[in-house]
Design goal:
Number of domains: 2
Strand order of the largest sheet: 6-5-4-3-7-8-9
Radius of gyration: 24 Å
Shape: globular
Number of helices: 14
Distance between the termini: 46 Å
Oligomer: single chain
Mean pLDDT: 82
Structural class: alpha/beta
Low-confidence stretches: 293-307, 330-334
Length: 334
Amino acid sequence: MLYLKNYVSLFSRLYIACQSRYGDLDDFFRHENQVCPPSLSNFGKLRQGTKADILSCLENCTELTSSQPNMDVIILDGAVVVNFLKPVAVRTFEDYAVKVFLPHINAKLRQVSRLDIVWDQYHENSLKSQARNKHDKGIRKRVDRSTFMPKNWEQFLRDSANKTELFTFLVNYIKLQTTSKQLVSTNGSEVVCIPPIDTTHLAPCNHEEADTRMILHLADAVDKGFQKILLRTVDSDVVVLCVAVVAKISVRELWIAFGTGKHFRYIAAHEIAASLGPNKSQALPMFHASGWLNQVAGCHYGQHYLRRILHQKNCCAVAAKRDAKTITNARKQL
């Protein structure tokens, strides 16, 4: 309401001035009268959208459920897992790995034939590192077996170096597991598999964020004959990417376990894709990325940043090929 009153006051003064000077009102309204267009900003502050708003539109195309469907494969976003697995009643990082993290992983593995854990990578000189530097920084703490757990878990996870060490630390415990089922975990640009399998189409991989790398693991699982797959995430980007690749990889059922707490639900990406049709589904990532990036990132980094991030977010989804381990290969397939 304050903004509206300011606009009314501005136009009233301009209108009166135009009349007293015998100006042409039609000519007056043909020109910008503010430095920052009101349609894009609130007095110089760029209007920011909420990219997760697209979920409400997509979820209208399917029936949500709180019951987990029967799956052959689960693909976990590792960063999401450690965010909601709080270090309760543990003293050291070894206690966290043994008493909190591994029991959760083993419980998920018992439900399926294959379990994939995909971790983020944090490249020091990447464009994404510039965006992370804008956020609040956490307190640096070395991750080791005997190191005491941080008092503030959320603040600890704000530091990229902390997360890099934590992810590597947890992967080392995954390597010690023995199972007759398939357990796959990324480890930097490489992949750890128990028991060993051919990882030619999975590594080395330079994807920085887990959301696009999860799509590679999805495609690999489908290539190995699995047709009922679930991805665990809290990122709307992953939902959009999954809807886009359903037709490309010919998967029978693709589910997303999304959200946390009372907002947790299972989303059927294959049903959304069938409702939208192949053309709209495959165009969805470009529409989604260009919409929120132009509002949020454009004011800070310019069009070069937008083009780079848009490629990284969507090239692999559009290509959905096994040799899209690098962003460059994904671009070549477009």
